[in-house]
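Hello K.,

You asked for the raw outputs rather than the summary table, so here they are, unedited. I folded two proteins back to back in the same session to keep the settings identical. This is the first:
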Amino acid sequence: MKYLVIVESPSKCKKIEKYLNDNDDLNIYEVVATMGHITELKSLKNIDIENNFKCTYELIESKKKNTEIIRKKIKTVDEVLLSCDNDREGEGIAFFVCQVFNLDPFKTKRIVFNEITESAIVTAAKSPRNIDMNLVYAQQARQILDLLVGFKITPILWDVITKHSANSLSAGRCQTPALKLIYENQLDINKIEERKAYNTIGYFTNQNIPFELNKQFETEDDIKDFLHGTTTFTHIYSCSQPIKVYKSPPQPFITSTLQQTASNELHYSPKETMRLCQNLYEGGYITYMRTDSKTYSKEFVDSTKEYISRTYEDKYINKNIHLIIGGAKERDELLNQPSISTTKKVTKGSKKVNKKENNLCQDAHEAIRPTNISLKELPDNIDSKEKRMYKLIWENSLESCMSDAEFYSITANISAFQNAKFTYISELIDFPGWKIVSKKYSTDNKEHQYLKTIRQNEVTLYKKIFSKVSLKGLKPHYTEARLVQLLEEKGIGRPSTFSSLVDKIQERGYVKKDSIIGKEIVCKDFELYNNEIFEITIKREFGNEKNKLIIQPLGIIVMEFLENNFSEIFNYEYTRSMEDDLDKISKGEKSLTELCSICNLQVDSLISKLKDKPKIEYKIDDNNTYIIGKYGPVIKCSNTVNGKEEIIFKSVKKDIDVHKIENGSLKIQEIVDDKNNTEIKNSSYILGKYNDQDVIIKKGKFGLYITWGGNTKNLKELGNRPIENISFEDIKKYLEEGSNMVREINTNISIRKGPKGDYVFYKTLKMKKPQFFSLLNFNKDCKEDYKSCNITILKSWIKDRYDI
């Protein structure tokens, strides 16, 4: 028989086709790709609300050519196998493939796998299943809910704020609660009143070990009194008996924890993390990256146990490793029980797992892991960012299967004036356990051994006491990693949507990833040395923050309007309950019609309460008004010249407090940015200079790009965020990549200009010389322009033609 296997991504085709044909001499397999969704719900007009929310899906215009190719291939085969991704979206795509090509969705077989390896593909092909219609209904329900909320409320934003925003204002069922998290955090930051406090360190023993005082002082007089009393105080040393401390290995990666860890350790955005993982998955190196499951397959656990035994010893295998095998009966009970132990136990990166949260896990896949634990490093021709991501996943997966790290901990105390005490905690490793993988531990702790030799209740003299000013009460802005964590905790969206939510609120211009310059304060520190108190005056900055999510004036205006008028459907509990109900639909416990009807009635009810809302604008004086223009906040200036009204627009200073404008406490001179006092009239502006050439950022048909001299560089990694939210530092790395770049495919492959035309440039870090390949047949083969076509088509063509 001849089979046609339909997948989503074209880069999977060649590998899956090879695995299937190599293992089946009787049948012939051909694999084609839909390139994601092939149908769409364009607007509310496509939803018949009165007819149980019956939807009319339309073929996506850009997919029509590829759809006709697939249609012709279907006619040449005996059977079609649907192998779209193993999640709700994939189930939906599989169903609509049946709809478009007149295949019976109840008879057409579906094969699913969580990794692109030979064994997984062959096993899946031998055990096909039917389309799970409950998952299809859940996917459809999510689309309908998103349209009901977004398409009904967004036009109201246009009416009351602006229709002409370059990045199109929008409200979203999950997008708006994500923005609300940033907004509320900013309100908390604004309310905080910082105060000075003194943190004190005492240096004791011949080793000058720094002991920390367990008391803070808030005034200079308080710390002076303490230091004066210290000069005559008798300090007594004591030390606890060693306590065995167990540090548990990290938990297996799910989507959200991988995004957080990659952000914190590799400084990758959630969007970048998912892009890299998609490439690793399609390359057959890791399992599917959109998952809630914290379990592994038995086959992986067995191979990992064997790897640990071979590389280290059996004692490094976690004694409870059987509990992270998918379907383990004891697992759920263990996750919800408090730890019972006579010794102290610390878990790396763990959090309390409540019963509700555990029940919400879709558990459709395994945790994110390498497909082969013995593959410690990827081949040289793999992108360097992908290598770093793979290493992170490989280490976490191995460590999660290993035994606890064991330490001996002692707490040394020295009595202090005013019933306080100085404390120093020291740990000495006894058994490295999972920490042996990264080797981030020390076996030699001289201080630990030294502290145990000091006699109990011995009088100890200080070497120096130093008290330093700190600022209490500072609350940080959120990082992307922290926002992802909060989205998960509050049940806003699902792992597969977190990265798009974080990116969307930046694209809309509501939030900007930026650095905060702290406030400089004159501090007076104190040092006690040889019974003499010294005062040290120093300027110190507090509150410096780097790469944090900062809400913009536009985000504040949008959020406050939505909070005042639609709080019922954008509160966290409502959003979480919607996600819970979608889970129920996926299990056949709730109907699509019921959920969508409730949501639709709530939205309509809230809209009906809105009377004619005036446009949001703040009058500063008779001639000047603060409004939202095409490229963000501007001042609309109205003057009468020769009897005619003349209107011009002036730029607003960055970091201006929109609430102060709203309540009229700022004058026009305090608001207008004199350095750039005309509205940006084109979707471009100068960021700075590079090699004495102006660097201009622009927004074109295919997104953001920069030009300098005769050079052009695509900024696809920055998404579709407003150009005014991008700084010179954001694009500096692109300037340094070379001036003959036409289009970057990945770190190793790019399209470049040459004396005889454009060509494919290929060079890995370990290659001494690059290789060059012709683009001559691309247009003929793909009927596309390599400069502007979908990057997936270009990648697939290069891989198929040159095997790189």
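The second followed immediately with the same parameters:
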Amino acid sequence: MSDSNPQIKITGARQHNLKNISVTIPRNRLVVITGVSGSGKSSLAFDTLYAEGQRRYVESLSAYARQFLDQLEKPDVDFIEGLTPAIAIEQRGSAPNPRSTIATVTEIYDYLRILYAAIGRPHDPQTGAPLTRHTVHDVVEALTALPDRTRLLLLAPLPTEETRPLPEFLDRLKKQGFLRVRLDGDIIELDGDEEQSLKRFAKKLPKEVEIVVDRLVIKEDIRSRLADSIETALRLSRTRVSALVQSPDADRDAGESWERHDFTTTFTNPDTGFSLPPLTPRHFSFNSHVGACPECHGLGSRLAADPELFVPDPTKSLNDGAIKTWWTGSKMRKGYHQRLVLDLAKHLGEDADTPLKDLSREFKRALFFGEPAAKFEGLSVHAMRLLETSKSEVTKRNVRRFMSPKPCKSCEGRRLRPEILAVTMPHASEPLSIEAYTRLSIEDALEWIEHITLTEQQHGYADEVVNEVRKRLSFLLEVGLGYLSLDRQSGTLSGGESQRIRLATQLGAGLAGVLYVLDEPSIGLHQRDNERLIGTLKNLRDLGNSVIVVEHDEDTIRSADWVIDIGPGAGPEGGEILAEGTPRQIEADPKSLTGAWLTGEKRIPVPERPFLDQASLLKSRSLLIIRGAREHNLQNIDVSFPLGALTCVTGVSGSGKSTLIDHILRRALSRHFHGGKESPGEHDGIDGLDHIDKAIVIDQAAIGRSPRSNPATYIGVFGPIRDLFAQLPASRTRGYEPGRFSFNVAGGRCEACQGDGLIKIDMHFLGDVYVTCEACAGRRYNRETLDITYRGKNIADVLEMTVSEATSFFQKIPTIFQKLRALRDVGLGYVKLGQSATTLSGGEAQRVKLAAQLGKTGTSQTVYLLDEPTTGLHFSDVAVLLDVFYRLRDQGNTLIVIEHNLDVIKCADWVIDLGPGGGQHGGKVVATGTPEQIAANPESVTGQYLAKILA
């Protein structure tokens, strides 16, 4: 690397587990930071580089501005030279706001609202007939097209309520300079002698009042005057102007009739009288009362009583308590309502000892929606009435437990008013409303907008807006999100998808000279889509930016300009620079753990398979079968999962994996076993539930929201440790209970720092500073509590132990040893028992959850659901993760894993490959079988990549 190249020089970085490292990073290059999970990659990239870049920017602002900005903690580093303004694009998911969609967060929807307001074509929502309106230009063109010497009377029609009382109204007109008014078809001259003409309106007021704005004769130079008069008429009447026309050949003395022409600036259907005001961008916003559906206020859904939540177990009878409601906890109310239900059953001739699922459809309808003859209101009706009328918040909260969001019946989930949904964009083949357009996938939306039809005049003001929409769609397509629909709620996106949307936004910004820090942008991407993402990162670099990526993906590492390998281990065993250089230099460096995996020196072996083919596996195992899955893009498919096996669900991005496993299987299992509220996606049913007893989702979400949460509390080992300390003779003598050894409870903890060990000092417009508590020296407990020791260690000493140290220390206490051994076995021996959960990486948090399962006495009938468990994991970590999977499977449990990592897929017992494409081009089962069978299937895109790694 030449000294003439601009560089970022980091000296003495000690943030978290970094061991006073110094490193030089080339600027304006694509740099990958890699290493095992917990080695210090994020500490260097985000907590040091980005934090210092953001801190310097904030400190350049005024003290007044700084108090309104969140500030990151000042990193523990001696000096950073050559740092440019920094932007972090992390893998955090979006907040679950039902009003936030892909179209809104990318501002595409804002441009669409402008476009539809400017050139949208309204229709009558009842008949579908186009609505027409006229501009001043349209009226001028229509009237000047009449023959020369045609006489015109321009009229401004007014609502009659604005003309009361009539004499005063006419006085105002005279003062404004108007000379004539037309009342019920008769023209009245406002010359001072109009009293005689108005006598007939003394008792009966006129039904039509029109101001005569101008009298003209069509000729060559009349356009300017005509336009001014039309604008005056529209200003008076707001939306309407009328013209009485008399042809040049008419006999004026004979008083031949005048022909009337009406014009309006509002959209109108002349046949039905339906009208629409001039459209503005607000009309197309579901966040504005102007355009939002008045029933659901733009949400597209409303809370409604869900019959399935009332009946958690339909195999029970009415007498056995099949029905669960908000009154179940009260004996008196439960007895009263139970009698009402039994009376209803008796009235309809049903047996109260028969399982509810076998009772008649008529009874079920009456149970939920009422039966007047039996004076039974119905559970759903009763719930809705309580929600709307009850003044008790407790009652409302209890009732909401039996409700779930359902599509709004008024707008059918489309969020907008019917008249706005009837506005379409002119298009060469398929005019669409704004709502129908946002239902398209990003790929199809880009294709559609290329073919909208604009007039020459519309091109002048719409081209720029169309180009903005096109540009943003292109960037989203470029980062591999073409399968997502524009109306997809942001809260339903994975962390990887949210990150790539932010990446596309940055591409659209076109900034240069910026330091971009990204966290595994390849998350959720199939190998087929990864190449396009790498191209996007290179485009960002080519704009003149430094792109630093924390990544484990092999293709991304090989495509980097520079690689920094951190390790050798995790936590205290990491934090060192093992190697740095080009990918080839990393491969050649014997100290680089990553290099050994890149060269193939290290690799994950394919395990011996107990099942050699599809037939033997399916015959030897019970099956969990999803039938008729048709949610989102799933095309009415049946999918079988062998129980007691490790199954990988694969497919290109958007093929339907998450819909199948998360929206259907997870929600159905959650509702069946745990009474979950989320409604499963559309499917006919699931067979084989009697072969399992619970379902557990293991994701990479933090194991605790509070800094007080730690691995010991999560896996349940801190309770037995506190019990052990409470049983010591010294504790019994002093009367100490287990709570004495909790830093969350007053009594044993240090009250000066409330058990935190640190004191927060608010520096106002500077970043907050944390200093070690002087009272307890950071040990969290008071002196009396620390006096109690077990084998020479007090409770604070135990929390400072690593998992490996604690496993040896407590090896003679089975209840503690078993749980700690599970943590050690998943590769977390370096983590301290009292380490804050918020400092754990996503991969570490996931392994803590797996350890919690390994440490339990299982039933061998558990289904574990995992969505891309290799996120954030190095090649070495993946090998450890697979060992955990094998142990859980060998206990008889079932693992169903959504995964793109080929090392995991090749080690699975069974693979279900969805596709063949994403979005509307996916949703089918392309192939099922062992990894070798998938690799041999020419129709499987996953198989093409799997074949290379199995070769």
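The chain is about 35% helix and 15% strand.

Happy to rerun anything if the numbers look odd on your end.

Regards,
P.
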